[in-house]
Predict the structure.
Amino acid sequence: MINPDSVGRTFHGADQITVTQSEIDAFAAVIGETDTTVAPPTFSIRISLSQYESILTQPEIGVNWSRLVHGDQKFEIFRPVVAGDVFTCSATIETLRVAAGNEIISVRSDLHNGAELVVSSWSTLVVRG
Amino acid sequence: MIEVGTVLAEKIFFIDRALLKAYADASGDQNPIHQNEEFALSVGLPNVIAHGMLTMALAGKYVTDWAGGSANIREFSARFIKPVIVPADQQVDLTVVATVAEVDGNCIKLDITATSAGIKVLGMAKAVVIK
């Protein structure tokens, strides 16, 4: 069960993630994008999801990652992600509700390069009961 | 002049198991429901399914092409309402089309429709682009 006390709190990922050109190239190749000077609009999910996994599965939050389904996703992109960006990622648990035995959390992720907010994203994650 | 209600040209992407593997490697999402048929069936799915985020990434490519590049996308959102089912040794379609929903100067909001095998797979899919 997800700890209800985690709602409204912001958790910070421990890692600094450096975006490499080869990561952008690989992501772009999958969708047939040939211009790799900037990352495709959904590229940052690569960072957010891995950070969510390490943050949200901590015992004080308690998300069961193996039963997770992605419900919806929104990105607000303040400037495109480029190779050489060094991101820190925070996760804010905005809401938690239980429906039909499933736990449904809405999590906001902010990716900062230094003091600059580059991408905010919102994910609804469903932990199947 | 771009007018509200304009329907953009449809584009069809093709998804197969090799693309799911490539997306898993590129995104870091190695959930076996997207690669291993036995595992997918064991958790009650009809077959291997595509990553919702792959579907969204392809819809993003559609938007990006129209907007003149990835740098022009400001907002992008979608709900994953039905899975894209990807049987072995088959290519399934992801058919994407969009309608101009709002125009505010050079800022344009698109409503996006994405279907696979005739079934709507993304809900409330929207993008805001600068064009």
